Amino acid sequence: MKNRAELFSIFQKFYAEIQTQFNLSIHVLRNDNAREYFSAPFTSFMSQHGILHQSSCAHTPQQNEVTERKNRHLVETARTLLLHSNVPFHFWGDVVLTACYLINRMPSSILHDQIPHSLLFPNQPLYFLPPRVFGCTCFVHILTPGQDKLSAKATKCIFLGYSRLQKGYHYYSSETHRYFLSADVTFFEDSPFFSTSESLPVSEVLPLPIISPPDAVPSRPLQVYHRRHRVAVPPSLAKVPADSLPIPSASPAPALPPSTDLPIALRKGNRSTRNPHPIYNFLSYHRLSSPYSAFVSAIYFVSLPKSAPEALSHPRWQQAMVHEMAALHSNGTWDLVVLPSGKSTVGCRWVYTVKVGPDGQVDRLKARLVAKGYTQVYGSDYGDTFSPVAKIASVRLLLSIAAMRSWPLFQLDIKNAFLHGDLAEEVYMEQPLGFVAQGESGLVCRLRRSLYGLKQSPRAWFSRFSSVVQEFGIFRSTADHSIFYHHNSSGQCIYLVVYVDVIVIIGSDQNGIQKLKQHLFTHF
C-alpha cells in the first residue's frame, strides 16, 4: 500500500478472498480511529454487507490488543531481519512481508504450538521453496536464449523475500535498480549483500517501480580487480610517537608503477593463518624465564614421563598402564597372532595425562595406549573414515524445543568411546612396549576393536553406537544422521543427539528415556 487511499480497494480484495478461499463471512471489523477507515466508500461497503464496524477510543490502543500485539510482533521480527542482514531501511516493505511469511510458518503458543499456515491450508506444503537467509547474496541465472558464449550467465542480486502467487524468490539488482522473480537462483547464505560498514546513497538503493524478468538484465564485460602492494613502514619510523613526526606539506602522492598490481585470487581458502590471541604474548608458559620455569616445575610435583621405560620405573604410572592394559584385554581389543605375509603393522605409543579434580588436586594418573594412525596405508589398513556429528543448528533447535516445552535434559558421556567400535578392516599392530610376554615377542596384535589413533576409529564407534540405539527401536533422522528420535503410540517422543562421545537426550516420554539410558548402560 503506497498511500492510505488504497486501503478500501485492498480491503475489498481481502473480503472477496476470505469468501472464496474459506467460504466465510466477516462479521466484525475492529480498528483504531485512522481516517481511512471512516471514508464514505468504506462505511457504505460495511453497511451493505452487514459488517459491524467497531473502533477503539482515542489514545486507548489496549482496546485493540490483538492487532497491536501482532503489529509489534511484525515490527520486532522485521527489525531483527534488518539488523542481521544490514539491509537499508528503504527495503522495509520487503522486510515486513518476509517477516509475515516466516511468522505464519512458525509454531504459535496461542495455537498450542501449531503452525498458522498449516491450519489454514492443511493440504499445502509448508514451503514451496526452501527458506533462505534474508539479505544474502544470490546469483540469478540468465536464461535468455541466444546469449553470447562469453557473457555472464548470472547476475549478482540481493535476496528480499518470497512470492505468494508464484513458486519463486524475490530479489533486487542494485545495478539495474529492478526487482525480479525467479526460482533459478544460487544462494550464498553466509555472505550478506551489505556489509556492516557499507552505506549506499539513496539514489543507489531506492528501487524503480518496474518488474522485469531476469533474462532482461544486460550482460556486462568481465572485470578483473587488482590489489596494490602496501608500502612498508621503516622500523625506525614505526617506533617514533605520532605527535613527534613532522607534518609534510600537501602534495600529490606518487603513483605506483603498473608492475606492482597483483590480481586478486579467484578463490581464497578458509584456513586462517592468524597468530594466537595477543594475551599469549604475556600470559603463557613459554614466556617464562629459566628460573621461573624451574620454579614452576619444582612446585608441580607430578611430571609426565617421556617414555614407557621411564613410566614403568614409577609405581603410580606403572599402575595406570596396567589398568589400561587390563581394560583393553577385558574389552577383547586384539588377539595375538603371527603376522601374515604381505601385511604391515601399525605402531603404537603411550600417552600420559594427569586428571585434575575441581579443587585443583590430582585426581588420578591416566595412561592411554594409542595407535600411530599416520603409519596406516589407505586401502590396506583403512577405507572410509567419515563419521557424522550433530549440526549446531539441530542442537539449537532441539534445545529450544526442550526449553519451550519444559523437558528435562540428560547428558551422557561414554567412557573410552572409541574402544567400543568394531573394526571391519584387517589391522595388525605392534605389541605395546613394556607388556610383551616372554616367548611372544614374534607375535603382533590383530585388532578386533577400534583404538584411539586409528583413522577409522570415529567411524567404527558411530556405527556401533547407531546400531545399539536402533536396537532399542529409535530411528535415525535423514536430515541429520546424528539425531535419533522415537514416538510412541500415546504421542510422547524421545530425541537423542550424539556429538562424538557426548550424548544429550530430551523428550516427553520420561519412562522411555529411563529405559533408553539403561539400554545404553548395558552396552557401554
UniProtKB/TrEMBL annotation:
Keyword Metal-binding part of the UniProt annotation: yes
Ranges that cross the membrane: none
Superkingdom classification of source: Eukaryota
SUPFAM superfamilies noted in UniProt: DNA/RNA polymerases, Ribonuclease H-like
Every Integrase catalytic domain range: 1-124
Gene Ontology molecular function terms on file: hydrolase activity; metal ion binding; nucleic acid binding
Keywords annotated in UniProt: Hydrolase, Metal-binding
Keyword match Phosphoprotein: no
GO biological process, one term: DNA integration
Protein's recorded name: Integrase catalytic domain-containing protein
